[in-house]
Write the structure tokens for this entry.
Amino acid sequence: MPKVLVIHGPNLGLLGRRQPEIYGNFTLHEINKHLKKLARKEKIEIKFFQSNHEGEIVDVIGEAKDSFAAVLINPAAYTHTSVAIRDAIGAAGLPCVEVHLSNIYARETFRHTSLIAPVAAGQICGFGIDSYLLGLQAAIRLVRPKRRLKLKSRRRSK
């Protein structure tokens, strides 16, 4: 059974109390609860880690390559500043999906640059809690390529 590591960056432990107009009213516990439900449905294991400390996040990513099939990360403010987290993701060699609750490109200019995006398989932002759920679905598809979405083609009637 594949295992996905979910990493929540700095200040995400304050969700539900911190700027609800930007991040919503749900808590980190609620996000994790929804992710666990999706993980059970998809028959994958999931582990959560939250830290406000860059070095701890780097350490967890470095250790992940031996135990996990993919990483789902919301690097929060470290998105825009952490070469160390970027390098750890690159060195781990695991598929990584970057997520954000808010649309970082619709916010302050300094948030428009992600140092993580170039080493991630993809980025999902702006959909609140759904960013995490979509991100987990993407991570699952990266580790189970046979489960990619199958789109029905429409035939035009003549």
Observations:
- The mean pLDDT is 90.
- The CA atoms of residues 7 and 73 lie 5 Å apart.
- The chain has one domain: 3-147.
